[in-house]
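Person: At home tonight, work slowly through the protein below, taking as long as you need, and write a paragraph about the fold.
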Amino acid sequence: MEFIDTYVIPGAIIVAQIMALVVPLLVAVAYLTFFERKVIGAIQLRKGPNVVGPFGLFQPFADALKLLSKETILPAGANKIIFLLAPMLTFILSLIAWAVIPFDKGMVLADINVGVLYLFAVSSLGVYGVIMSGWASNSKYAFLGALRSAAQMVSYEVSIGFVIITVLLCVGSLNLTAIVEAQRTVWFAIPLLPMFVVFFISALAETNRAPFDLPEGESELVAGYFVEYSSMSFALFFLGEYANMILMSGITVVLFLGGWLAPFDIAPFNWVPGPIWFILKISLVLFVFLWVRATFPRYRYDQLMRLGWKVFLPLSLLWVVITAGVLVTFDWVP
């Protein structure tokens, strides 16, 4: 009985907390694919999915059943173990990062004091799934797509790192809850507007979304690093990409848009629970993700790299220096 009280019950609580986070996230990923097609359809003056179920709401389930029923094809020359591990790694990394994202004060799976470092470490590991899939496929198209994607992700992680340093200078803490609490007076998107824009565009590049979807350029690489994948192995890459979109939107909300805080601390805004505000803000950022995809043409690869290294990197580095100078000049200690 003592063993049950000491180990089993706390373990069951932790598992329940993880499931309470993962299950809604998976549903959100499924319906993000639906809303993407609806939003792009509306922008292009067409209906989008509208046949399967009322208003097409069962379309994600139909897509999931289709992918589940397909055959998993393993290329003859592929390294089968790494080939199958790559999509699993990509999907798992997109889920475990949510452990430190706070939905409200105290509503976080692991409220660690180095939450920002944890997020940066997990997002940096994402490139391994891409490289593993491109190499293990034993296909020159997949390998070229993996090289492109790896270079792209590494390039834009540098500017993302400097943007996060700017926020940390203003807060004085690596704890994500502390970062949100520091925005009670003003959201960081206002005083750090250039860094907010740089972070959002870098998030598009980090998640391989249009107009930076070079790794999966249909015209020259067919589908990039996952060209040899089918069935559920492809579905895991697909789900991982959309889960990463939601994750980057959540990080954007925490760093720049006040997390769970209401826009104005007056009625009726402060009557709405914090998690609802958090979800609404994530939805708004995701809508911009979809809007950008339907609006902008794809960049050339040299333009993509020039933007990352010659524009964003110097700008973010300059903004770190300016922010530090302002804080020291006005003797403002977070």
User: Anything to note?
Assistant: The two ends are 48 Å apart (CA to CA). The CA atoms of residues 97 and 119 lie 6 Å apart. DSSP finds eleven helices and no strands in the chain.
